[in-house]
Write a structure and sequence with these properties.
703 residues; alpha/beta; OB fold (Dihydrolipoamide Acetyltransferase, E2P); Rossmann fold; 8-stranded mixed β-sheet; 6-stranded parallel β-sheet; 22 strands; 36% helix; globular; binds adenosine-5'-diphosphate; binds magnesium ion
Length: 703
Amino acid sequence: MVPLMPESMESRNSSPLSAPANALRGVGPDRTAQLARLGIQTVRDLLFHRPRRYEDRRNFRKIGELQLGELAAARGQIVALGLKRYAKGTKSVFEFILADGTGRLHCRWWNLPYMQQYFQQGDDVLVYGKVHTLRPRTIDHPETEVVVQNEENSIHLNRIVPIYPLTEGLSQRWLRFLISRTLQQLGGQIMERWPSLAIADLPTRSQAVQMLHFPSDLIEIDRARMRLALDELIELQLSIQWRRKTLQAKAQGWPCAGNNRLIKPFLARLGFSLTGAQTKVLREIRQDMAATQPMRRLLQGDVGSGKTVVAACSALMALESGFNVALMAPTEILAEQHYRNFARWCEPLGIQVDLRTGSRKTSTHDPQALNLGTDSSGPLAIGHLPSPTANGASPIAPRPSPILTVGTHALIEESFAQERLGLVIIDEQHKFGVAQRERLVRKGRYPHLLVMTATPIPRTLGLTLYGDLDISVIDEFPPGRTPVKTFVRGADHLPKVWEFVRTKLAEGCQAYVVYPRVEDSGSGEVKAVTKEWETLRKTLAPHRVGLLHGRLRAEEKEKVMAAFRAGTLHVLLATSLIEVGVDVPNAALLVVENAEQFGLAQLHQLRGRIGRGAHESFCILVGSPTTPEAEHRLKILAETTDGFRIAEADLKLRGPGDLLGQQQSGVPPLLFADLKEDLPLVERARGLAKRLIEGRSIVLNSF
Ligand code: ADP
Ligand code: MG
């Protein structure tokens, strides 16, 4: 993290909290190594070691009342114990029986004979674990602590006690004692990180750490966590807002608002008029692009809401202003589709469109442009002169006409150093990481940036991942859409599903059938999907079925897509490759096989391929969910088409790291904050960080 806490005493190296853990009494080389395994290097790390749970040792359950399956803490005396060996001495079970006057509890350890050295008849023992039978009442492999004589008033008993993550060789009691003593000695050194912020409704940071370890009631645990989470989130928000502020201070954008010269004829020929939401968003974009600071805008709109046209208008603004534009898509299929659309739109306007993907480089100003063969004849000249006969040697060469380049990540990986790059558009942003988006943008001299995503980002994540971007939302669908009807069917219903598909095909619809395999899972999968293809062709004959998967060569993919678009193929059997962006309005049917293997967001994206045209659309999720979670996923999809609800549910099910990829998300691991639950805290942290940044120009300048 960037050093954002100049106010913070705590972060100064001179603070005793920065001392290494072995500076503490009783921490020798062995203990130091053990603590290091828990990530504890310094005194501060020790004080912020978060308990993994708490045990309320003020009142123990009576052993006689412990229920089956219950996770329970109990206390009693050892009335019997012993080690049994069996299977010719190769296996063992150690067992003791605990009594508290209300019943007996058997505690067993399998194949851990050394456990017997820790316990003796008559010991007063605390145990914690799951009651796994009632006759006799038994817990296997419980957590234990032996009560030492006369410690009724200690940190270990008669209170809410912290239970820490441990490592081999460390005991709860030792660590608890070390933390308690260190807190007593040094807890007062824990300073507020931002003393100028008044956070009156929560404990101070120092109080919070005390409560974290030794709460006097259960509510304190929560309040302590909230306070420490808030500090974490403020720091995160500071770094986000900082990044943005520095960019604003340093970077110059090109004036790219355009003059409507190209947009007017484009809209006139489009065949539909923009929705209110599209117009509103374009107004926001135009305002940004007119400014001297580069735009950083996220365009969020559910699948099918019409982001491409917004991208096109934004591109035309920059082109009108004489600047080049780059449009990046996550898959070749999508890049090709964009290329085709933009070429169709831009050709009549005299604007050159280039395509650059891993396997293809072509240009509308290339005589071979519409020939689908690969062209590996060297790097594409960027910044062409308008006429193929003119060349840079001419002393009166006019300024080259601006061009639009469409591509995949190859745009980044190859040397994409374009002069006068006014605008970069990234489609399906959720498929790219933050780092990638930054890399592309740095190639040019701060072009305006428009990132588009169909994955509605839950607000906690949005504020965290896209906190440095302004957000525009398309909250309205183009007119005439009927919501997709979704059904979940067991695999045994497949014959009926195909029957239904045949009926719909006969009515003139087209269909996607999605085969449930990840893309690059090897040639075995290609064989399997090819076989499935043959079966499906027979099942659905005489309707024509095409096959699309990631292992096909780019031009083969494009050929299949072209045939499907043209309607000569009626059904497209595809892998999840078609997940993003593909737009064939006549396709009104989607069958997903083994739907339980897909994630929620992914299924929502897939479903977004249909419901784009006049036909009533049907999505049939075929699957036999084996886990409650998978069943829940399919149920949500059947219930709602609201992308936002789906994203929220996805976040709850999978967690933020998984949803966006923790590494590429650029969010540091959070010890106390939980992006799944902490929206109020995130929002609060954001406001507080803003106040800090606005109030502290000195800090900014030193960055
Ligand atoms: P997405 O937001 O998922 O990228 P697209 O840009 O692919 O959506 O648009 C989905 C479909 O809606 C396309 O076929 C597009 O031509 C059509 N469309 C977009 N805007 C409008 C509009 N204002 N009126 C009618 N159809 C529209
Ligand atoms: Mg799209």
